[in-house]
UniProtKB/TrEMBL annotation:
<keyword id="KW-0436">Ligase</keyword>
<comment type="similarity">
    <text>In the C-terminal section; belongs to the PPC synthetase family.</text>
</comment>
<comment type="function">
    <text>Catalyzes two steps in the biosynthesis of coenzyme A. In the first step cysteine is conjugated to 4'-phosphopantothenate to form 4-phosphopantothenoylcysteine, in the latter compound is decarboxylated to form 4'-phosphopantotheine.</text>
</comment>
<feature type="domain" description="DNA/pantothenate metabolism flavoprotein C-terminal">
    <location>
        <begin position="7"/>
        <end position="214"/>
    </location>
</feature>
<keyword id="KW-0285">Flavoprotein</keyword>
<keyword id="KW-0288">FMN</keyword>
<keyword id="KW-0460">Magnesium</keyword>
<feature type="binding site">
    <location>
        <position position="161"/>
    </location>
    <ligand>
        <name>CTP</name>
    </ligand>
</feature>
<comment type="function">
    <text>Catalyzes two sequential steps in the biosynthesis of coenzyme A. In the first step cysteine is conjugated to 4'-phosphopantothenate to form 4-phosphopantothenoylcysteine. In the second step the latter compound is decarboxylated to form 4'-phosphopantotheine.</text>
</comment>
<feature type="binding site">
    <location>
        <begin position="125"/>
        <end position="128"/>
    </location>
    <ligand>
        <name>CTP</name>
    </ligand>
</feature>
<keyword id="KW-0479">Metal-binding</keyword>
<dbReference type="GO" id="GO:0004632">
    <property type="term" value="F:phosphopantothenate--cysteine ligase activity"/>
</dbReference>
<comment type="similarity">
    <text>In the N-terminal section; belongs to the HFCD (homo-oligomeric flavin containing Cys decarboxylase) superfamily.</text>
</comment>
<feature type="binding site">
    <location>
        <position position="109"/>
    </location>
    <ligand>
        <name>CTP</name>
    </ligand>
</feature>
<comment type="pathway">
    <text>Cofactor biosynthesis; coenzyme A biosynthesis; CoA from (R)-pantothenate: step 2/5.</text>
</comment>
<keyword id="KW-0456">Lyase</keyword>
<dbReference type="GO" id="GO:0004633">
    <property type="term" value="F:phosphopantothenoylcysteine decarboxylase activity"/>
</dbReference>
């Protein structure tokens, strides 16, 4: 890996899952560990980028030299990401953002009275879709985690969200993807190219993704 090949580049990265509050003690969450996003942030910083990491709650440590903002809900992540978007050169949305949130958050802990409890969920804003619509100079990279029809769904997202690149993970394969230390992925581009990334550590994959981003920037 060439040292400092990201010098002068401002890279905005989101990582981890969001938590959507049900009441003061409960939330809806997902299995994202944040490892892939943190690996990308560390690798970009090591290669000389100025990195801002917008992180959902995780158990991970942030490498020094990385500016980090912690958020919980998708709506907070949206605010934080939009605040940094205009100044960014490269934006990598590795976070697993909740698609739905409770329509209302109870002020007090919900007591177990009924035999069933119904929660009404409403759509969260799609941050990446909005970034695609606002896009100017930024190179925009998304992630897709799917359990079926990986390539088809990833291609649809790439087009709909106006991305330059999408990293597609099949999360039905045991030992890789969500909460694992390794990953297997496909990289899809606007012109229809698809590249396969075989099983490797998330740290290694982070550097390969950064190589590919740089190659696209130079075109
Ligand atoms: O459509 P889907 O949620 O699968 O798209 C995944 C990509 O979109 C990821 O890069 C994720 O970070 C981003 N996303 C987002 N805001 C949402 C949902 C997903 O930015 N509400």
């Amino acid at each position: 890996v060439a040292q400092n090949d990201f010098a002068g580049k401002k890279v905005l990265i989101t990582a981890g899952g969001t938590k959507e509050a049900i009441d003061p003690v409960r939330y809806i969450g997902n299995r994202s560990s944040g490892k892939m996003g943190y690996a990308l942030a560390s690798a970009a910083a090591a290669r000389g980028a100025t990195v801002t990491l917008i992180s959902g709650p995780t158990n991970l440590k942030v490498a020094c030299g990385i500016k980090v903002e912690y958020v919980e809900a998708a709506s907070d992540m949206r605010t934080a990401v939009l605040a940094h978007y205009n100044e960014s050169d490269i934006v990598i949305k590795a976070a697993a953002v909740a698609d739905y949130r409770p329509q209302s958050t109870a002020e007090h802990k919900i007591k177990k009275t009924g035999d069933t409890l119904q929660l009404v969920l409403e759509r969260n804003p799609d941050i990446l879709l909005e970034l695609g619509q606002l896009k100017k100079q930024q190179m925009l990279i998304g992630f897709a985690a799917e359990t079926q029809q990986l390539v088809l769904h990833a291609q649809e997202k790439l087009a709909k969200k106006n991305l330059d690149m999408i990293i597609a993970n099949d999360v039905s394969v045991p030992g890789v993807g969500f909460n694992a230390d390794h990953n297997i992925a496909k990289v899809l581009y606007r012109d229809g190219r698809i590249e396969e990334l075989s099983k490797m550590s998330k740290e290694h994959m982070a550097n390969i993704i950064l190589d590919k981003i740089l190659a696209e920037c130079r075109k």
